[in-house]
UniProtKB/TrEMBL annotation:
Residues 10-129 form the Response regulatory domain. InterPro entries: CheY-like_superfamily, Sig_transdc_resp-reg_receiver. It comes from Kitasatospora arboriphila. The modification 4-aspartylphosphate is found at D65. Keywords: Phosphoprotein. This is Response regulatory domain-containing protein.
């Protein structure tokens, strides 16, 4: 898949816990897969910050902490899927594998159980980012 060298992808990471946000960005690194452009991170600690970022546009993937408080990432995912036109793909971090039914209810595009497995997270993120790039129109900005 060809891409321009100056293109970057934006990954929004939502958690009320700074350590969780840091864990996600460290796991994904600068480039989740060799065939993808570089990634930059937009960290959000509150629901209003997530909503403002998505209203501005330019987000290619959301990684939301299902265990965040007071607003968990699962409920937020469902809200985003309902309210944000062209909502980017959402990957939720769930507390345990048994919570995967909640991820399905939220309409998340993928779910990874915590603690974060860096390989599983990178693979899921890369799959979602490739699909996002493929949906883009070939017209240049």
């Amino acid at each position: 898949m060809a891409h321009t060298t100056d293109e970057t992808l934006t990954v929004l990471v939502y958690s009320d816990d700074r350590n969780t946000r840091e864990q996600v960005s460290l796991a994904l690194g600068r480039r989740p897969a060799a065939d993808l452009p570089a990634v930059e991170y937009l960290e959000c600690a509150t629901t209003p910050a997530v909503l403002r970022a998505l209203e501005r546009g330019g987000v290619d993937l959301c990684v939301l902490d299902g265990e965040a408080v007071p607003a968990g990432g699962l409920g937020l995912t469902r809200q985003l899927k309902d309210e944000i036109y062209g909502c980017p793909p959402v990957l939720v971090l769930i507390g345990r594998p048994q919570d995967s039914w909640l991820a399905a209810w939220s309409r998340a595009d993928a779910a990874i159980a915590q603690p974060v497995d860096p390989v599983a997270l990178a693979e899921a993120a890369a799959t979602l980012l490739r699909a996002r790039i493929a949906k883009r129109t070939p017209a240049h900005r």
